[in-house]
Amino acid sequence: MRVKALGMVSGGLDSTLATKVLLDLGVEVEGINFSTGFCVTEHTRNFKSDQDRPTRPHEALRLAAELKFKLHIIDISKDYLPVVTDPKFGYGANLNPCIDCRIFMFKRMRKLMDEMGAQFMFTGEVLGQRPMSQHREALKTIETESGLNGLVLRPLSAQLLDPTIPEIKGWVDRSRLLSLVGRSRKPQMELAREKGLENYPQPAGGCCYLTDPQYAAKLQDIFDHKGKNNLTHEDVLLLKVGRHFRVSPRLKVITGRNERENNFLKSYEKGRHVFEILDFPSAHLLAEMMGDPSAEEALLLASIAARYCDAPKGSAVRVVHRHGDRRETLETCAAEEEKLERWRIG
Ligand code: SF4
Predict the structure, then answer these.
(1) Number of domains present in the structure of the chain
(2) pTM assigned to the model
(3) What is the CA(207)–ligand 1 centre distance, in A?
(4) Rounded mean pLDDT of the chain?
(5) How far apart are CA 231 and CA 151, in angstroms?
(6) Which ligand 1 atom is at minimum distance from the Cα of 133?
(7) Is residue 225 part of a domain?
(8) Whole-angstrom Cα distance, residue 120 to residue 22?
(9) Whose CA is nearest to atom 5 of ligand 1?
(10) Can you tell me which atom of ligand 1 is nearest the CA of 105?
(11) Strand 70-75 to strand 152-153: parallel, antiparallel, or no bridges (unpaired)?
């Protein structure tokens, strides 16, 4: 019987190797690529390409095409937010709920295995590589909580772990699996060379915004001021771009850092206050708040916009404040650097 395995495939080095090992053992493989809404490469790809920064390929798709297996890209972002806001097993070094995240994904895998007729699942996890979710105890907890005991094969570290059902039943030859351990990626790079795999993304690059300290600081600010239960997909997206400032408990500001980000922010003006500099090129500024700004707050927001424009230093500039159909023009100089640094988040 030809067995079928469903793999969690990001297209990174580890999942590339795990997939290749199983394909070389004659296992039929289908890949699942989950999109959580917090993926770094996904966001980078969504920015239109320009001459300086070409659009990055979808690594999992690229891998599926190269190794010739079927890949399913599944958007789980809608149901994923509670994993981030209320993780049973807590957070890692930043706001990364890795154990809950894996349990959530593994439960999805369990369902998909049934739907797609797969006998087991596999991942590219390496024992001891990630401090929160890849130590022996965490791997066990994740399996048990997701109802997949014995059905998760980790080809890269399998020889160091208890034999799984596919190994016990002889569907997969345990002696041809690996015993990688720890954080170094050198053995994986060597193995990739041996297997003729050259086209993989550089390992150890951050792939999840939740492990990024700057992103986590901005997310924590939303938890503190808006409330965890009010976190939206739009918040998750906007945290990925621009400079963020918490001016007061009721007033938050986002400005673009380049043309791409300015254009991105323009799509999210609805429901927000917009401040634009007349007469000079400038960053796009969005202000989030309940209700309208006072006259003093409007001037302050205008002064932040003035800081990020090409007007000569110290000169007054005209700033348009827009909200829905309303529009007013203000005049101000740039906000002091010291204040901006105090308000800056992340
Ligand atoms: S790094 Fe992000 S995607 Fe990976 S397990 Fe942790 S929370 Fe999930």
Answers:
(1) 2
(2) 0.92
(3) 8
(4) 94
(5) 34
(6) 5
(7) no
(8) 12
(9) 98
(10) 8
(11) unpaired
Query: Ligand 1 centre from 168 Cα, in Å?
Result: 30
First to last CA, the chain: 54
CB 159 within 8 A of CB 130: no
Stated as kind and residue range, the H or E segment containing 194 is helix 186-194
Which helix (H) or strand (E) element contains residue 72?
Answer: strand 70-75
Cα distances (angstroms) measured from residue 319 to each of 23, 80, 207, 268: 60, 39, 38, 19
pLDDT of the residue at 2: 82
Tell whether 173 and 50 lie within a shared domain. Answer: yes
The number of beta carbons lying within 10 Å of the beta carbon of residue 147 is: 11
Residues in a beta bridge with 327:
322
Complete edge-to-edge strand list for the sheet that includes strand 28-35: 70-75, 28-35, 4-8, 120-122, 152-153
Residues 190 and 265 reside in one and the same domain: no
Residues with CB under 6 A from ligand 1: 36, 96-98, 101-102, 133, 208, 210-211
Please give the structure tokens belonging to residue 216.
């986590």
Name which residue sits closest to atom 1 of ligand 1, judged by CA. Answer: 208
DSSP bridge pairs for 321: 275, 328
| Whether the Cβ atoms of residue 223 and residue 231 lie closer than 8 Å to each other | yes
Mean pLDDT of 258-262: 95
| Cα-Cα-Cα-Cα dihedral sign, residues 99, 103, 109, 113 | positive
Q: 85 lies in which domain range?
A: 4-194
The string of pLDDT tens digits covering residues 204-253 is 556 899 999 999 999 999 999 999 999 999 999 999 999 999 999 999 99
335 closest CA partner among 313, 315, 312, 306: 306
CA of 97 from ligand 1 middle (Å) equals: 7
Q: Is residue 266 domain-shared with residue 176, that is, in the same domain?
A: no
